[in-house]
Amino acid sequence: MRKVIALVIASLALVGMVSAYSYAYVMNTDKLTVSSTNSALVALIPTTGVGYKDGTAQVVGNDLVIDFGVNGGGSHPGLQPNSRYDWDNLFEVKNNSSDTVKFRINLDTWSGSVGQFVNSIAAYTPGGDQYTGTEFKGTSNWYVLQPAGTSGDTASIYVRLGIPDGTVPNSFNGQFQVESYAQ
Question: Mind listing the pLDDT tens digit for each residue in 125-178?
Fold first, then answer.
């Protein structure tokens, strides 16, 4: 009988130990580095050169800011009604990760009123033909970037704006979202 009682007590003690560990809390160290948008794992980099000296796309603080209708002198002459503007390589998306990454520019989340003027936004191989790139507007397309340091780790972004006739002069603001996933 003593052996049975000892076995029951030992079993209860073991059950008590097991249940105590089911609520364990373990601390681990981790690290998060927040960097500027032009040096992040999936970087957004403004382009330079002819047609981009006005600073349409530039890094301000840590964000890529796109200011359509600005000129190099810092004023905002704007875009006139009944017009179309194309930026063949407005900015680049660069994969700084060791993984293959797919991304898209989600116009469904383009907030504010700028989105109404976007006729086209596409990604294409730098130096390639923007008109044969991956179109994002009205699609669920993704563009694949190869790992950092390999051919295909960067995509150029083409944007076309159309300002309809009769648009009342005004300032329009908005934000767009670049979604990316490692594959």
Answer: 887 777 778 888 877 889 999 999 988 999 999 888 888 898 877 877 777 888
| Angle at the Cα of 125 from the Cα atoms of 122 and 129, rounded to 5 degrees | 70
Q: Are the beta carbons of 160 and 85 closer than 8 angstroms?
A: yes
Per the CB < 8 A criterion, the answer to whether 104 and 177 are in contact is no
Q: Tokens standing for 116?
A: 């109404």
Q: Which amino acid is at 51?
A: G
CATH for 42-182, among 2.30.30, 2.40.50, 3.90.660, 2.60.40? 2.60.40
Assess contact for 62 and 134: CB atoms under 8 A: no
What mean pLDDT comes out for the span 48-66?
A: 81
DSSP H helices in the chain: 2-21
DSSP-assigned letter for residue 23:
T
Report how far Cα 180 is from the mean position of its chain's Cα atoms.
Answer: 6
CB burial string 126-137: b at 16+ within 10 A, e below: eeeebeebbbbb
Two tokens at 6?
A: 């000892």
